Amino acid sequence: xxxxxxxxxxxxxxxxxxxxxxxxxxxxxxxxxxxxxxxxxxxxxxxxxxxxxxxxxxxxxxxxxxxxxxxxxxxxxxxxxxxxxxxxxxxxxxxxxxxxxxxxxxxxxxxxxxxxxxxxxxxxxxxxxxxxxxxxxxxxxxx
Length: 143
Description:
This protein is mainly beta. It has one domain. It contains two helices and six strands. The protein has helices at residues 3-6, 11-18; strands at residues 23-32, 35-38, 52-62, 70-88, 94-102, 135-141. Strands 1, 2, 3, 4, 5 and 6 form a six-stranded antiparallel β-sheet that branches.
C-alpha cells in the first residue's frame, strides 16, 4: 500500500478491514438509543410488541412503467425484527445488525400503522455501558 495513502486511513477503517472477531453474539432483546427492540420469537405470547422497525431511506427508484427515469426519493420501510447480532471488532467497537422481515408496501393493503412509542421517557445522559441489560441468546462462531 502506498505509504501516503495509509496515513489518511482512520484507525476505525483499519479495524473494519480486518473483519470482525470470529465469535458473534445473538440477542433476543436489545436496548439502544432509548428503545427496546425484541425479536419476533421473544415476543411470542406477549400482549405488547417491540419487534417492529421503521426507517426512511434515500432510494433510487422508477416513478412508473411509463416514466422509466430513475429518481431519488425518501421511501419508508417497515419490518419485523427476526435476529439481533452483535459483531465485535476486537474491543475497538461493536456493530449491531438487525435482520428484518420487510413488509411489501408497494401494494395498498393497509397493513402498516406508524405509531409513536409509548412509555418512552427522556432520562438525560446515560453512560451506554449502563444500558447493556440486553438478553443474550446464544454465542455463535462465524468463519
